[in-house]
Amino acid sequence: MTSPSAPQRVCFELRVKPEMLGEYLARHTPVRAEMLAEIAASGRRNYSLFLGEGGRLIGYYETDDDAAAQAYLAASEVATRWEAEMAPFFVDLDGRPDQAATTLTEIFHLHDQLTASVTDHESDAS
User: Fold this and answer.
1) Which residues of 73-110 are buried (b: 16+ CB within 10 A; e: fewer)?
2) 47, 57, 75, 113: which is deepest, by most CB within 10 A?
3) How far is Cα 29 from Cα 16, in angstroms, rounded to an integer?
4) In this model, does residue 15 exceed pLDDT 90?
């Protein structure tokens, strides 16, 4: 789990309609420069999308304040246009893709557990 001083790590899942996979990939190769700039300006970084079988799409990013990043993008005309264009690509989506994706719960992070392990080990040695 995330510590209070660490960036928030956000992972989400969507499903791309199989018949639209080719076009979805084309829209992301590359993403429009204005949208890339808005993602960065929102405070999201280390952002990746991963595509699995059957159109399963997993996204991951880090941010210092996810609520602020979401609010920034919700108010952005560029992001609003992009999300409206992307919405038809997804199965059973109720709303904007950037707001309606299923968020996944983080249950393990190597760095956090290694840090806790070292801290615990140092406490045991005292």
Assistant:
1) beebebbeebbeebeebbeebeebbbeebeeeeeeeee
2) 57
3) 16
4) yes
The backbone torsions φ and ψ at residue 40, rounded to the nearest 5 degrees and listed phi first, read: -65, -45
Residue 62 CA to residue 83 CA, distance in Å, equals 20
| DSSP tag of 7 | P
- Joined tokens for residue 33: 């420069």
pLDDT at 123 over 80: no
Contact of 79 with 98, CB cutoff 8 Å: yes
| Average pLDDT of the residues in 54-81 | 97
When the pLDDT of each residue in the chain is averaged and rounded to a whole number, the result is 92
How far apart are the C-alpha atoms of 21 and 28, rounded to whole Å?
A: 11
Domain 8-125 fold: Alpha-Beta Plaits (3.30.70)
Mean of pLDDT values over 71-95: 96
Q: What's the start-to-end Cα distance of the chain, in Å? A: 26
Peptide bond into 30 cis (omega under 30): yes
Phi/psi at 35 (5° precision): -75, -40
